[in-house]
Amino acid sequence: MDIAAQSIEGGFADPVFNAQTVFRAVMDTMARPGSVQKLPALARPPAPLSATAGAIALALCDNDTPLWLDPALQASTTVRSWLGFHTGAPVANTPADAHFALIAAPAEMMALDGFSQGTQDYPDRSTTLILHVGDLVSGTPLLLEGPGIETSATIAPAQMPRHFVEQWKQNIKRFPRGVDIILATADGIACLPRTTRIKTMEA
Amino acid sequence: MYVAVKGGEAAIANAHSLLADRRRGDRSVPALRLDQIVEQLALGVDRVMSEGSLYDRELAALAIVQARGDMIEAIFLVRAYRTTLPRFGYSKPIDTANMLVERRVSATYKDLPGGQLLGPTFDYTHRLLDPELAAGADVAEPLLRETEAQAMPRVSAILAREGLIEPDGDMPQDHVPGDITREPLEFPMARDIRLQALSRGDEGFLLALGYSTQRGYARNHPFVGEIRIGEVELELDVPELPFAVPLGTVRVTECQMVNQFKGSAKAPPQFTRGYGLVFGQSERKAMAMALCDRALRAKELGEDVVAAAQDEEFVISHSDNVQATGFVEHLKLPHYVDFQAELDLVRRMRAEHDARENPPKGDEKREAAE
Amino acid sequence: MRGQEARDQAERKAAMATLAQSSGDDIVRLWNEAGLPSDAELLRGPETGLVTLRGRIGGGGAPFNVGEATVTRATVRLPTGQVGHCYALGRDKQKARLAAIADALWQDPARRTEVEAGLIAPLRSALTTAHEKRRAETAATKVDFFTMVRGED
After folding, report:
1. What is the pLDDT of residue A50?
2. Rounded to whole angstroms, how far apart are CA atoms B90 and C68?
């Protein structure tokens, strides 16, 4: 299959209902940080973009949301044209201009504070990061507390960014500014909004 | 505090069905079709497209019928509809020099390349009501004149050759055009954002402000350099095609106002310009927009801000008739609780006032005692 | 870009422009008359959205946003594999679908002549006639200035 065909195939089969399903999953996991929602493979994006991250991009991104891609994704012409055709989202010139960022290799990603943090007047203008993670059980366990969590919750996402717990502490200090994170595995999602505090299990 | 009061549902439902009845009117009169409105009330349709900020004739016609001819209500309906649609992107800037011209006049040059084309204008009509139109008389086909297609450069380009007029408005190289449909208004405001607000602004409001500049409130010595009306092609860059995709043509009205300017600390004596660009055939609106655009450039050109038309925050904050009607019309909705509070306050103030003005007898004694 | 490729692209764009400017009714009528196949898989749309129309300050200066226009788009794939696109002003979904199929057929060398002759050429000729008529009507309102000489000198 040629690049042109790959970049046009694999969108939502049922755009309205598929987008609503994904949106609902993102909303619920954002509201209950650390909870995991299963998501069927509703989109078939070209590699290395994962089906889950691709579906989230289709549901959330449009012409008004500049999108930043990490080097692994940026290197793929097919991924860029697939996202362009299906979402219409322009590519952000710098991470600080991005409304959304797709990260295929979180372990190698740049620091969280390089993305848009929003402003005191408009904290909603920060970047929402969509991270590909292998799973939510085999990494360093993260003990979560904060709004939307009754007592505590635990997830253990694999291949997280370097010094993530320390970076997240800095992120919380910037409140109400700061980034929010969506963790996308092969078949599900979990979220870390900027209000969630992390305690490592070891600590 | 908000107190919910229920009980209006039946009245509202019945009012809406009464509205539907009155909108339709006498059933023995044929119902209007949208194509009749598009064809025969074309300038009303253009106004709704321009101030509704949505180029779609059939939707504007539907809005006019649904609003019973209330133009601001129709504009409101169109604005509400457009929020339901996704946005595919920003077009490439239209090229008004390359227009299929239907009208083109200049008040500054008699003989200009392409000539003066009056087109379908109300100018030079006698403004006498026409009983024949009321009787539904047949209308003759327009006359034709075969000519070679002629280039029609913009008049501003002709004036520019002498170097006595400022260039077309530029912005810094990396400037991204602002968009008031995406970002809240912030003052001071760049000229591109002002023009977007003016293009959808209320015709009556901008006309009155433009008129005020002519009457001496920020006089800026305007001449119509050029008005042109016609169709321009629209193109959009899309990721899936290696070229800009053609979308079809839209009719627009452009006004280049040329203003004599004696110079200031910031600029030498020259002609300055105001610019108007609106959807459809809307000449008065384009002229008013150009007058306001020029007046609002006062600070940029080093002029004193002395009049309403030069006050950016005043003009732009009040030019949108949907916002204006929303805030004015909300006053008729129930304010029972607010008003009760006001009533208590006024009663108390009145009682205190009366007590001061007409102290009851016996008070002197008590005051003396205090 | 090679010369032939550039020419093909310009011709394809011209065909898309003709389709976008023509009415849905005209396209359907000519489609049926020419017996063109309308069998295609819809990859996207037809769907209606907005395009923000941009002008330039002073006519030729920096771009600014004027307002939105409704646009309907469609992307289709033919059984033979060609992918066609349409974007056109307005809300005519049938027109967008057929114009996208026409664009896909146009890219098939075996079909191009048929599409050009049966659909694009007649549409283009109707548009040209309408434009010429419009221009001639406007030209009839052109002012022919002449000077009245007064006095003795």
Report:
1. 95
2. 9
Q: Find the residue in C nearest to B180 (Cα).
A: C65
Of B90, B245, B118, B225, the residue nearest B164 (C-alpha): B225
User: Domain count of chain B?
Assistant: 2
Under an 8 A CB cutoff, do A8 and B88 touch? Answer: no
Distance from CA of C36 to the nearest CA of B (A): 23
**pLDDT, tens digit, for every residue of A87-128?**
999 999 899 999 999 999 999 999 999 999 999 999 999 999
**Average pLDDT of chain B to the nearest whole number:** 92
Nearest to B88 among C58, C71, C131 (CB): C71
Q: Is residue B212 part of a domain?
A: yes
- HSE, side-chain direction, 13 A CA sphere, residue C99: 36
Residue B114 sits in the same domain as residue B212: yes
Query: Does the distance separating the beta carbons of B86 and A63 come in below 8 Å?
Result: yes
Nearest-Cα residue of chain B relative to residue A88: B88
**C22 exposed, middle or buried (CB, 10 Å; 0-12, 13-18, 19+)?**
buried
Of B60, B82, B104, the residue that ends a domain is B82
Domains of chain A (ranges, CATH numbers): 3-200 (3.40.50.11310)
Q: Does residue B219 form part of some domain?
A: yes
Give the C-alpha separation, B253 to B96, whole Å.
9
Tokens of C133: 């008529």
**Residues written for chain C:** 153
Is C43 in contact with A8 (Cβ distance < 8 A)? yes
Q: C51 and B247: CB-CB below 8 Å?
A: yes
User: What is the extent of the structural domain holding B42?
Assistant: 10-82
Residue B229 lies in a domain: yes
C130 within domain boundaries: no
pLDDT of B369 over the 60 cut: no
Q: Is residue B187 part of a domain?
A: yes
> Please, which chains are in contact with B (at least 3 CB pairs closer than 8 A)?
A, C
A154-188 pLDDT tens trace: 999 999 999 999 999 999 999 999 999 999 999 99
DSSP-derived 3-state class of residue B337: helix
pLDDT, mean over chain A: 93
